[in-house]
Amino acid sequence: MGDFIEDAVRPAAVRLFQSRGIIVHEVQQNVSVQRGEEGLEIDLMVVNDSEAVAVECKSNLKIDDVNEHLERLAKLKRLLPRYTNFRVMGAVAAMVIPDNVARYAASKGLFVIGQSGEDLAIRNDEDFTPAVW
């Protein structure tokens, strides 16, 4: 089911993030890295020359999913040093996002992508400022 969500979010990512002022040059799917005993997997990386948004895709988003993504973001630059000088932001995307989970993710500085009618939308307020890692 996660692949289905990724496949739905990937083509919408360009439009969604450009609407928030993040110009998108590439969308990479299933980014994986292993350095020694430590590894990292990112469902989607939305990238330009100076910014990257790491997106975690779920069918039903839970607070534990948000916390796990925050842990991934905390080690992303160390495990993927090509992003050392980038403004790295995070996002969570899901078909089902309970309101309390959406509020929690936004309070942690993550973009929240969910269904809006027949389309996907960033659910954060227009004045939302994402956290930068």
Q: How would you describe this structure to a colleague?
A:
The protein is an alpha/beta fold and 133 residues long. It has one domain: Trna Endonuclease, Chain: A, domain 1 (3-Layer(aba) Sandwich), CATH 3.40.1350.10. It is built from three helices and six strands; from the N terminus they run H-E-E-E-H-E-H-E-E. The chain has helices spanning 2-18, 63-79, 99-107, and strands spanning 26-35, 38-47, 51-60, 87-96, 111-116, 119-122. Strands 1-2-3-4-5-6 form a six-stranded mixed beta sheet. The radius of gyration is 14 Å and the shape is globular. The protein starts with a helix and ends in an 11-residue tail after the last strand. The model has no long low-confidence stretch (mean pLDDT 94).
Q: Number of DSSP strands?
A: 6
Give the CATH architecture: 3-Layer(aba) Sandwich
Largest sheet: 6 strands, mixed
How would you spell out the order of helices and strands?
Answer: HEEEHEHEE
CATH class: Alpha Beta
Query: How widely separated are the two ends?
Result: 28 Å
Mean pLDDT: 94
Quick gist of this model?
The protein has 133 residues and is an alpha/beta fold. It has helices spanning 2-18, 63-79, 99-107; strands spanning 26-35, 38-47, 51-60, 87-96, 111-116, 119-122.
Throw out a few tags for this protein.
133 residues, alpha/beta, Trna Endonuclease, Chain: A, domain 1
How are the SSEs ordered, and which strands pair?
Layout: H1 2-18, E1 26-35, E2 38-47, E3 51-60, H2 63-79, E4 87-96, H3 99-107, E5 111-116, E6 119-122
Parallel strand pairs: 3-4, 4-5
Antiparallel strand pairs: 1-2, 2-3, 5-6
